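Ops channel
N.P.: pipeline sanity check, posting one input/output pair.
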């Protein structure tokens, strides 16, 4: 069915959209260049004899980066709209409007990939101090583009985003759309991870805050633009997109984004300023204050929209209310776009904080002074903030308790043992990543093994016994409409091919073996320890691999292919043997582990790296066996209870049918006995 030709009013609306977008972008670019000058990031001719990329590169890079960020936000926004905001069926097939959003995401992703390449050449020119024309030459680009972390990350982004564009073009389900959304959000943060190879000072907090800020920003701006676009272009009765429903769904996401932006913004300011007075005495600080002011205004605008306007849109088709609603959303988009411009300014400007020089190279690599010789008090009660795991554990604990409270208020029962196991597991995660053991794990292989074994083999057992997926399935309400709700999304995820792979025992054992032998007996261990991002990735692997292993052995939560108890017992024995062999090899080895890192960050109380490594092997041997014993005991208890349940089931069946199965079996035996033998 062909769409009717646009009326004069519709054409005027389209023209207003384009005009408004152009004005917002123009204002944002002007603000970008003005604040860049204020913060000291503008162009200043270099002294004679020094490299000078020129004004085109210095002023052009912020504009290209701003355009790249907007394209990234648009890609994320259209994918969010297609997967979650546009109406769809419970089987996950995208609607007509969702398919249109996917095609818009393809266009935005193509622009994102192209602008990333353009930004690569501008960045290359700025870093090398050469004009853009020279950076575009194949010789320069081929030699340096993949050697500089910032340009290498942009090349990776272009490749990843191109894959997202192709995948979105071929996608027809909301589940796969959500997958491409995750990949796109991941691509947004890749540039923020470059250039931070060490953990100097508060760079760990700065990286975590920066990544959080980027994710929150794109998840706020992108879906807002999608809602406004649908709201302006939708005609009453001629579009399946419900603006009011989409706005209500987005309201929850927007609230989370506001909180994340505020917290990450404070953390970023803390890591880049020496004191509060620099907020008004430096250009950088003044831009920070301006961005804070914008965030406050955004919060007020969002409050007006969500409290006064959304409730007046019961069906999303009231043109009058929708018109006011869209105008307010347009104001919000304009303010967020300005905030994006200020974010680019802060990212490209030198910040006032001066790094404190530390006494040794090793301490400089660590970003803090060597800890004193380990004591039980220092190991147990020391603290150094790692925001990723600290905040993540607090959120996981809060959501779990909220689910328990909802069940109790509903009159349902939830075992307190599961709640206690979940909370203790999270406490262990916080201790292993933020406690004193986390500090000592960065300078000693032995104490690193204590952290690793606790994080991989003890915390996951308790977390798995907490049964978070089962709690969520019981606490979440089923969706009332034809679309998927949170509970349906969780059910879909638990039965995806990805989950079938992650819970496959062969895959889990492979991850387990690679995590031990592939990590520690190669140069990967020292390389990952040398960067904050690598360190986080390694700890995520420890926790995830341990959780998957405990899940297939004693897991309560539903999974695609439950294993027989004898198979679980066999897998546990295989893992125990592999772990014991790993520990023995370390204790008998003659080469220190991770010498590429631990050889450079060796405090005075670690005089012999080989002895420290062998101490780590002893820890792996002794400490690794205790959690395995816990797993074995839990498995035996579950096996016994399963047999008891099966016996009770058989007894109930016998009571219902008067032992029909047993009588049939006895008759079968009697029939065999009555047959004449061959000797008769």
């Amino acid at each position: 069915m062909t769409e009717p030709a646009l009326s004069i009013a519709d054409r005027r609306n389209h023209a207003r959209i384009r005009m408004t977008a152009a004005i917002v972008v123009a204002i944002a670019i002007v603000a970008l260049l003005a604040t860049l000058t204020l913060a000291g990031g503008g162009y200043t001719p270099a002294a004679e004899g020094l490299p000078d990329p020129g004004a085109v590169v210095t002023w052009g890079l912020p504009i290209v980066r701003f355009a790249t960020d907007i394209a990234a936000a648009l890609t994320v926004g259209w994918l969010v709209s297609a997967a979650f905001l546009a109406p769809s069926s419970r089987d996950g097939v995208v609607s007509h409007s969702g398919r249109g959003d996917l095609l818009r995401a393809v266009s935005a992703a193509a622009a994102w990939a192209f602008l990333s390449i353009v930004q690569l050449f501008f960045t290359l020119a700025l870093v090398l101090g050469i004009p853009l024309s020279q950076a575009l030459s194949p010789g320069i680009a081929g030699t340096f583009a993949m050697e500089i972390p910032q340009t290498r990350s942009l090349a990776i982004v272009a490749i990843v985003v191109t894959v997202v564009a192709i995948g979105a073009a071929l996608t027809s389900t909301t589940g796969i759309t959500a997958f491409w959304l995750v990949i796109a959000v991941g691509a947004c943060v890749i540039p923020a991870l470059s250039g931070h190879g060490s953990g100097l000072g508060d760079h760990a907090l700065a990286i975590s805050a920066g990544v959080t800020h980027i994710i929150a920003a794109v998840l706020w701006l992108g879906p807002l633009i999608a809602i406004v676009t649908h709201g302006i272009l939708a005609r009453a009765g001629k579009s399946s997109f419900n603006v009011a429903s989409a706005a209500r769904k987005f309201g929850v996401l927007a609230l989370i984004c506001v909180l994340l932006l505020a917290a990450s913004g404070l953390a970023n300011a803390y890591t880049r300023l020496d004191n509060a007075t620099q907020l008004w005495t430096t250009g950088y600080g003044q831009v920070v204050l301006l961005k804070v002011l914008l965030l406050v205004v955004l919060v007020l605008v969002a409050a007006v929209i969500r409290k006064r306007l959304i409730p007046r849109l019961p069906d999303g088709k009231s043109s009058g209310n929708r018109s006011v609603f869209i105008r307010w959303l347009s104001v919000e988009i304009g303010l967020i776009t300005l905030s994006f411009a200020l974010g680019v300014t802060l990212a490209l400007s030198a910040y006032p904080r001066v790094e404190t020089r530390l006494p040794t190279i090793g301490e400089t690599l660590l970003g803090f002074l060597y800890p004193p010789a380990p004591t039980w008090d220092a190991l147990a009660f020391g603290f150094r903030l790692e925001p990723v795991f600290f905040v993540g554990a607090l959120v996981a604990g809060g959501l779990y308790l909220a689910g328990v409270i909802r069940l109790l208020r509903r009159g349902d029962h939830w075992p307190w043992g599961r709640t206690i196991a979940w909370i203790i597991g999270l406490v262990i995660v916080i201790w292993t990543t933020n406690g004193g053991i986390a500090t000592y794990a960065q300078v000693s292989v032995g104490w690193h093994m204590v952290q690793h074994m606790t994080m991989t083999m003890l915390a996951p057992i308790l977390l798995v016994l907490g049964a978070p997926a089962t709690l969520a399935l019981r606490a979440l309400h089923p969706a009332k409409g034809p679309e998927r709700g949170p509970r349906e999304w969780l059910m879909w995820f638990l039965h995806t091919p990805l989950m079938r792979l992650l819970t496959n025992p062969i895959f889990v054992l492979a991850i387990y073996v690679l995590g031990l032998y592939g990590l520690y007996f190669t140069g990967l261990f020292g390389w990952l320890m040398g960067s904050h991002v690598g360190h986080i990735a390694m700890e995520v692997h420890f926790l995830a691999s341990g959780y998957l292993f405990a899940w297939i052995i004693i897991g309560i939560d539903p999974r695609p292919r439950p294993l027989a108890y004898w198979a679980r017992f066999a897998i546990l024995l295989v893992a125990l043997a592999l772990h014991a062999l790993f520990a023995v090899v370390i204790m008998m080895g003659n080469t220190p582990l991770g010498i590429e890192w631990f050889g450079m960050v060796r405090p005075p109380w670690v005089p012999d790296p080989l002895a420290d490594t062998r101490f780590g092997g002893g820890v792996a041997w002794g400490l690794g066996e205790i959690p395995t014993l816990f797993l074995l005991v839990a498995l035996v208890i579950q096996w016994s209870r399963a047999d008891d349940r099966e016996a009770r089931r058989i007894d109930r069946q016998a009571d219902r049918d008067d032992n029909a199965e047993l009588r049939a079996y006895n008759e079968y035996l009697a029939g065999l006995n009555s047959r004449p033998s061959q000797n008769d």
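N.P.: looks fine end to end. DSSP finds 28 helices and no strands in the chain.
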